[in-house]
Design goal:
The complex is a heterodimer. By secondary structure, chain A is α/β, with parallel strands linked by helices. Chain A has eleven helices and eight strands. In chain A, 35% of the residues lie in helices and 14% in strands. Chain A is globular, with a radius of gyration of 18 Å. The N terminus of chain B is likely disordered. Chain B has 13 helices and 15 strands. In chain B, helix 1 packs parallel to helix 7. Classes of the chains: A alpha/beta, B alpha/beta.
C-alpha cells in the first residue's frame, strides 16, 4: 500500500529522559510514543503511571527506563494521583515542575474515566496522555471501551458489537484548555502536541490521546507498526486534530482517500470481517469524519471554558 | 497554666467541628475531600475556616472518595502534610487506596465518622466501617469525645510522621460527631511547638528522581512488609510518649489504654468509642452501689497493643466487652481480638462479649449495669452474644 509522504512539521528533542533497555515488545508503538512524550516533557517532570503496558515498559524496581520520578498508582486513579502531586507542588512553590499522567486506554476510557472526568471538571493543571492500543493488551488483548466496532478481541471473539468511545470529544466537552489526538505514525505531530501541552502549564488540564498499535494484540508484523498507525489516520479512522477550550478545532490530518479495508487487511484482529462489514465500517468512518468537519467549521472559536486551573 | 496555652480558646463545638479545629492547628497543606453523612461537617467547617482566612490550605473537591484518597497519597509523597475524612461507604470506596497509602508509607491522618454500612441504608453509629479496615496498615485510634478527637488529630500526625504510617482517628456518628460540648482549642503557637513541620526523607522530586510503586520481586515484598511491621511495633511506646508529652504541654492526655474505676475489680468492662463515656458513668453508679467494677478503654486499636492489654487485665477475673460493631461469622471484633491477645496468659480472665450497641442501639447506663450483673452471674461462652 502507499502511505502519502509529508514534511516534518516539528523537530523532536532528544533529552534521553526515556532510555533504551526498557521492557517493551520488539517494534512496540507504545515505547515509541513514550520516548516522544517523555523526551518532550523533559526531566523537570513527575509522572503517574497506572497498571498498563507503560508500567511494564518503565521497568521493575529498582530499575527504571524513565529518568524522572514515576508514581505507579491503581488502574482507576491516574488523574487523581497526578492531581495530588500538582497540588502539593503548588503548595511548595514548585509551579515550574510538569505533572504528567501516562495511562492506557483501559485506564482512561474505562476504569479511570471517573477520576479523569473529575480532574477535567476541576481543571487540574496537568498533562494527561492516553496511549491507546484499543484494548487490554497487557493482560492478553481483551476488549476495552477503546476497542473499535466489530474488532475481534479475547473477550469479543465474534467481533465487538458496539462503537469505540470518542474520548477526544468527551474530553473536549469538559471545556479544558487542550485536547488533541495523535499517533505514533506521525511522531513530529505527536511531539509538537506534547510540547504545546507542556507549554500551556498554568492553564489547567491538557489531554492527548495517541494511537499506539499493539503488534501482538492487533496481529501485526513487527516492522509494520508505523505503517499501520499512518494508515489509521490516512484511511480516516483516526483523524489528527486539536480542540482548545472545548470549541476551537484545528484538523491536522484527515482521510487521504485510502479505503479502510487497506488498514484492516494488515491486521489479524479484523481478519473475520465480511465484505458487508467492511462497507459498514467505511460508511461509519465517513459519517464520523463529516461530523468532525462540521464541528470544526460550525462551533464558535471560544465557548464556555473550564474555568481557572484547579478551581475546587 | 503554661504560657504557651494562654491564648487557647474554649468554644462550644460539635464533635466533627472539633476535628476541623484540630486539623487547622496541624496545618495540613492539601485536603482532598468528598462529602458523606455524617462526616461532611468536618470538611464544611474546614472550608469555612479557609474562606474566612483562618486556615491556609488547598481543598481539592474530588469526584469520589477513591480519588480523594488517591490524591491524598501522592500529595503526601510529594512532601506536604495531608488530611482527609470519610465515613461508612466512603471508607469502603477508599479501601483499595488505604493499602496503597500504607505501602507507600505516607503519614496521612484521616478522620472516620463511624456509621452503619449498607445494605440496608442507615445513618447510625457503628464501628464496622473502620474495623473492616484493620488489615490495611493504618493506625486506628478510637475516641469518645470531640475534645479527644481534636487532641488525637494533632497527636496522630506526630506519631504517623515518625513511623511513616497513616492513621485513622475514629469517632462515632451523631453520639460524638454531632454532640455539642465545650472544647478547648489550643493555640497555634503551642501546636507549632509540639508538631514540627512535615519533612519526609523520601519524596517525588525531579531532582531526586525517586520513584515508587512499580513491580517488585518476592523477597523485596517480604522485606517491605517486614519493615512496616517493625515500624508498627514502635507505635505503642511512641504513642504513649507523644500522648504524655501532649499532656505535659496541653494538660490533656488519654494513654493508648485507660483503666478506670476499682483498682482490684471483680469485672472490667471493655469498650472503645462513644460507649466508653456511658460505661464510665455506669462504673461510677455501680461503685457507689458497692460493686467492685472497673473500665478498660481501648484507644489504640491498630497496632493492637497486646503487651499493654495483658498488663492492663492482669489479676482481673472477668471481662465484659460491649460492642458497636459486628463481623458476621465471628462476632464482636474487639471481643474476638482481645481473646486472641490474651491467649496463653497466666490466670487469663474469663471473657463475655456482648453485641449490645450494633447499628447504633442506645446502650444506657441502666443497660450497662444490667449487662454487668449478668456477666458477673453467668459463665461466659466463646461466642459474642446478641443481648
Amino acid at each position: 500500500m502507499t502511505v502519502s509522504s509529508r514534511k516534518k512539521n516539528y523537530e523532536i528533542p532528544e533529552e534521553h529522559v526515556f532510555l533504551s533497555g526498557h521492557n517493551a515488545c520488539p517494534g512496540c508503538g507504545q515505547a515509541l510514543a513514550i520516548r516522544y512524550v517523555l523526551n518532550t516533557m523533559g526531566p523537570n517532570t513527575i509522572s503517574t503511571v497506572p497498571p498498563s503496558c507503560a508500567a511494564i515498559i518503565s521497568g521493575p524496581q529498582p530499575l527504571s527506563s524513565m529518568m524522572l520520578p514515576v508514581y505507579q498508582t491503581t488502574l482507576e486513579s491516574s488523574a487523581a494521583s497526578a492531581a495530588g502531586i500538582r497540588r502539593a507542588l503548588n503548595r511548595m512553590g514548585k509551579t515550574d515542575v510538569n505533572v504528567l499522567s501516562i495511562a492506557g486506554d483501559g485506564g482512561t476510557y474505562d476504569i479511570g474515566f471517573q477520576a479523569l472526568s473529575g480532574a477535567a471538571e476541576r481543571n487540574e493543571d496537568l498533562v494527561y496522555v492516553c496511549l491507546d492500543n484499543e484494548g487490554y493488551m497487557n493482560t492478553g488483548a481483551q476488549k476495552s471501551g477503546a476497542s473499535p466496532h466489530l474488532v475481534q478481541t479475547a473477550t469479543t471473539p465474534g467481533g465487538k458489537p458496539t462503537q469505540k468511545k470518542n474520548i477526544a470529544e468527551i474530553m473536549a466537552a469538559h471545556g479544558i484548555p487542550y485536547v488533541a489526538t495523535a499517533s505514533t505514525g506521525f511522531p513530529d505531530d505527536l511531539a509538537r502536541k506534547v510540547a504545546k501541552a507542556r507549554d500551556m502549564r498554568g492553564t489547567g488540564m491538557r489531554f492527548i490521546v495517541a494511537l499506539t498499535p499493539c503488534l501482538p494484540g492487533w496481529g501485526v508484523k513487527e516492522d509494520q507498526g508505523i505503517a499501520i498507525a499512518r494508515l489509521a489516520t490516512d484511511t480516516g479512522l483516526w483523524p489528527l486534530y486539536e480542540v482548545e477550550y472545548g470549541t476551537k478545532y484545528t484538523i491536522n490530518r484527515g482521510p487521504q482517500g485510502i479505503p479502510v479495508r487497506e488498514y484492516y487487511k494488515l491486521q489479524k484482529r479484523y481478519s473475520h470481517l465480511t465484505e458487508e462489514q467492511v462497507e459498514e465500517l467505511q460508511a461509519e468512518m465517513e459519517y464520523s469524519w463529516q461530523l468532525l468537519k462540521a464541528r470544526s467549521e460550525c462551533i464558535p472559536e471560544r465557548g464556555l471554558a473550564a474555568g481557572p486551573a484547579q478551581s475546587g | 497554666m503554661m504560657p504557651t496555652t494562654t491564648d487557647e480558646q474554649r468554644i462550644l463545638l460539635k464533635g466533627n467541628h472539633a476535628v476541623s479545629y484540630g486539623v487547622m492547628r496541624a496545618r495540613p497543606q492539601v485536603i482532598p475531600i468528598y462529602p458523606i453523612t455524617p462526616q461532611t461537617p468536618i470538611v464544611e467547617k474546614i472550608t469555612d475556616l479557609v474562606l474566612d482566612g483562618s486556615f491556609d490550605t488547598d481543598i481539592m473537591t474530588a469526584e469520589s472518595e477513591h480519588s480523594a484518597m488517591s490524591a491524598a497519597i501522592t500529595a503526601s509523597l510529594t512532601g506536604v502534610r495531608v488530611f482527609t475524612a470519610s465515613a461508612s461507604q466512603g471508607v469502603f470506596l477508599m479501601h483499595e487506596m488505604f493499602h496503597y497509602a500504607s505501602g507507600a508509607r505516607v503519614p496521612i491522618v484521616m478522620a472516620i465518622v463511624n456509621r452503619t454500612l449498607g445494605s440496608p441504608w442507615g445513618f447510625w453509629p457503628d464501628q464496622t466501617d473502620s474495623l473492616a479496615q484493620r488489615d490495611t496498615g493504618w493506625m486506628h485510634i478510637y475516641t469518645e469525645s470531640g475534645q479527644e478527637s481534636l487532641d488525637t488529630v494533632i497527636q496522630a500526625y506526630k506519631v504517623a510522621e515518625q513511623v511513616s504510617l497513616p492513621a485513622f482517628v475514629c469517632h462515632e456518628a451523631f453520639y460524638v460527631s454531632h454532640a455539642l460540648e465545650p472544647v478547648i482549642v489550643p493555640s497555634q503557637a503551642a501546636v507549632d511547638e509540639f508538631l514540627p513541620p512535615f519533612d519526609p526523607s523520601h519524596r517525588l522530586d525531579p531532582v531526586r528522581k525517586e520513584s515508587w510503586g512499580n513491580v517488585i520481586n518476592q523477597e523485596m515484598f517480604y522485606r517491605h512488609r517486614k519493615d512496616m511491621s517493625a515500624d508498627m511495633d514502635r507505635v505503642p511506646d511512641l504513642f504513649t510518649a507523644v500522648d504524655a508529652e501532649y499532656k505535659e504541654k496541653f494538660g490533656r492526655g488519654y494513654g493508648i489504654l485507660e483503666r478506670y474505676g476499682a483498682d482490684d475489680p471483680e469485672i472490667l468492662l471493655v469498650g472503645f468509642g462513644s460507649m466508653v463515656g456511658t460505661m464510665r458513668e455506669a462504673v461510677d453508679v455501680m461503685l457507689a452501689e458497692g460493686l467492685k467494677v472497673g473500665l478498660l478503654k481501648v484507644r489504640l486499636f491498630r497496632p493492637f497493643p497486646i503487651a499493654e492489654l495483658r498488663e492492663a487485665v492482669a489479676g482481673v477475673p472477668k471481662l465484659a466487652v460491649m460492642e458497636r460493631n459486628y463481623s458476621p461469622g465471628l462476632g464482636g471484633v474487639l471481643h474476638q481480638e482481645l481473646k486472641a491477645a490474651l491467649y496463653g496468659m497466666k490466670d487469663q480472665p474469663l471473657m463475655h462479649g456482648y453485641l449490645s450497641g450494633v447499628g447504633g442501639m442506645n446502650v444506657s447506663v441502666e443497660r450497662i449495669e444490667e449487662l454487668t450483673r449478668k456477666a458477673l452471674a453467668e459463665d461466659p461462652v466463646p461466642e459474642s452474644v446478641w443481648v
